[in-house]
UniProtKB/TrEMBL annotation:
GO annotations of cellular component type: DNA replication factor C complex
Lineage: Archaea, Methanobacteriati, Methanobacteriota, Stenosarchaea group, Halobacteria
GO molecular function: ATP binding; ATP hydrolysis activity; DNA binding; DNA clamp loader activity
Domain AAA+ ATPase: 48-172
Binding site for ATP: 56-63
Pfam families cross-referenced by the UniProt entry: AAA, Rep_fac_C
Function summary: Part of the RFC clamp loader complex which loads the PCNA sliding clamp onto DNA.
Designated name of the protein: Replication factor C small subunit
Keywords: ATP-binding, DNA replication, Nucleotide-binding
SUPFAM superfamilies: P-loop containing nucleoside triphosphate hydrolases, post-AAA+ oligomerization domain-like
SMART domains documented for this protein: AAA
Keyword DNA-binding belongs to the record: no
Keyword Membrane tagged: no
One of the protein's GO biological processes: DNA repair
Amino acid sequence: MSEADEQAAATATGREIWIEKYRPQSLDDIHGQEEIVERLQSYIAQDDVPHLLFSGPAGVGKTTAATAIAREIYGEDNWRGNFLELNASDQRGIDVVRDRIKGFARSSFGGDFRIVFLDEADSLTDDAQSALRRTMEQFSDNTRFILSCNYSSKIIDPIQSRCAVFRFSPLSDEAVGGMVREIAAAEDIEVTDAGVDALVYAADGDMRRAINSLQAAATTGDVVDEEAVYAITATARPEEIESMVTDALEGDFARARSTLDTLLTETGMAGGDVIDQLHRSVWEFDLSEREAVRLMERVGEADYRIAEGANEQVQLESLLAALSLDE
Ligand SMILES: Nc1ncnc2c1ncn2[C@@H]1O[C@H](COP(=O)(O)OP(=O)(O)OP(=O)(O)O)[C@@H](O)[C@H]1O
């Protein structure tokens, strides 16, 4: 979600959403991503900011880093006027995006350059990216582009070679846990240690998810504990996933299937989430190497089939059945 969308959501619900309230304002305030922050700061210090390409999963600080750069270059009072945020997946297409960039880049202002931040750049077709590349060249005298995407491999080489590429990783448990504790202290909310661990686990490196879950859990009671977090995040406890797998491997298909049923119906998980959690946890379970390898093979197969549109429940039950049957 863009900063503008997040602000709009906050206004619509009539309460401030914490992902906006606690969005880092400066590069120094960004948690984790230390090497990236250091490199970006050195560009700013040398007054030599190139076009930038930020790639990485959702909620790890790409948009935040872009707005922090603008704040640092132009100052709190002027950055908004020098920063154009666009979403490349805009339904109206690349022409609208290009027109807005042209209008913005042409309008005069005092500084050396203005910044165009283009989110979801990997949603552009190759043709649209070629058009974007020409636009980048046309306005490179007075415009710097910051492109954000999930997968840099989906960005055409001529754009990649014109940008300094930064790969944002999922945030570490320490980075997410640290931020959760800071916000809890600022909001005067009690969060137990197990509650922090559960938020970190459910977030899986995505800070946006961790903060949103904290805010949601905080509205359900006085104390944010493990129970509150699992109740609102539609995440299975690691031990539930482990017992489901262990039951299947021990040949107790009926029990494994019943756990799966609970996860899908009561916990409200999507099949893809169960696959993700299995994938994350395979090596943390107390399984022999052979069992872990068998499980991984089945997880890969079910993941592919679900991505291709197969029925999630059938695929997951088939995964458990295969584990129950195999020697
Ligand atoms: N590294 C971080 N340190 C502190 N807060 C963060 C960090 N990353 C994300 N956040 C929090 O999560 C929210 C969303 O982050 P951001 O918009 O930067 O994500 P993104 O990486 O651009 O994701 P997307 O690809 O979905 O747009 C921010 O408002 C901020 O509150």
